[in-house]
Write a structure and sequence with these properties.
Helix content: 40-55%
Structural class: alpha/beta
Strand order of the largest sheet: 3-2-1-4-5-6
Number of helices: 11
Shape: globular
Largest sheet: 6 strands, mixed
Order of helices and strands: HHHEHEEHEHEEHHHHH
């Protein structure tokens, strides 16, 4: 890290957030793999801590939540008992929330797709909000108790339940099942029907797959360590929330939400670990 200038770090980060794999970044910029990986983990960790600190007291009104699948090392069906004992392997789901108005992502969680992670994720979301919101999730049943536990009756909550048909013969490996219909189900409070949607968070899932090589399907760019995976997700959301100008908003989501007063540069992002070190030393 000390041998890289801020501009050199920013150059590596720019390549990573635009969907390049670590090995391709090494080839393009003539860097060693361990240098790029170490930078990713250090900056990604600093990005997580910064966003955890500043994304508070948010004045959101409409939120959407979803989960996106990825895996560490190998797919879950290929994880052996020995592999599982050595380190975290297999399926890794990213739980994501998005503000439908500002497009800000207030929080996320990398974990399993179960009730425990749902409870932790929704509780974290609730702590970041300044007032009552309308929330829409998909039909994943674990959201029910998680939302009730976190919000009680201080929320307008609905599920958007989608129905799919059978998979097309010969296409099950590459094509999704045929979409049939959606059903809007009010769960708590009085959610406005016209705002019951998961379109924005599903579009954010696409942005994740396009911007992080490790989320691209049918490649060997998947994460090999959970630490690298979590750092990549944190870096992505720092870039998405603070650096990337949203085409519709014409500002960054953080600016639209009143969290930031300017468009961040990747040099500023690259300097976050140094800023943390100075604060710890003070």
């Amino acid at each position: 890290m000390n041998r890289l200038s801020i501009n050199e770090r920013a150059q590596i980060l720019a390549a990573l957030v635009e969907g390049n794999s670590i090995r391709s970044v090494c080839r393009m910029l003539g860097r060693e793999k361990r240098t790029v990986t170490r930078l990713l983990v250090e900056v990604g960790t600093a990005c997580y801590r910064y966003q955890d600190r500043v994304l508070r007291n948010l004045k959101c009104q409409r939120l959407e939540c979803d989960e996106i699948w990825s895996f560490i090392g190998c797919k879950q069906k290929n994880v052996t008992k020995k592999m599982a004992e050595q380190r975290i392997m297999g399926d890794a789901w990213v739980w994501v929330a998005i503000d439908a108005d500002t497009k800000l992502v207030p929080c996320w969680l990398v974990g399993t797709r179960d009730a425990g992670c749902a409870t932790e994720f929704i509780a974290n979301l609730e702590r970041r909000l300044a007032s009552r919101v309308q929330l829409t999730t998909d039909g994943h049943k674990v959201y029910l108790n998680a939302v009730i536990d976190a919000f009680a009756d201080e929320i307008d909550y609905a599920m958007l339940v989608k129905t799919f048909g059978a998979e097309a013969p010969g296409e099950s490996r590459y094509s999704p099942a045929k979409f049939i219909a959606t059903r809007k189900v009010s769960i708590l409070g009085e959610p406005e029907e016209k705002f019951i949607s998961t379109s924005y968070v599903e579009r954010q899932n696409l942005t994740m797959r396009m911007s992080m090589r490790r989320f691209t399907r049918l490649t060997n760019g998947f994460s090999k360590k959970i630490e690298n995976h979590e750092a990549a997700v944190a870096l992505h959301y720092m870039w998405y929330n603070f650096v990337r100008i949203h085409q519709t908003l014409r500002v960054t989501p953080a600016m639209a939400a009143g969290i930031s007063g300017h468009v961040w540069s990747l040099q500023e992002v690259a300097a976050l670990p140094d800023a943390e070190a100075v604060k710890r030393a003070a």
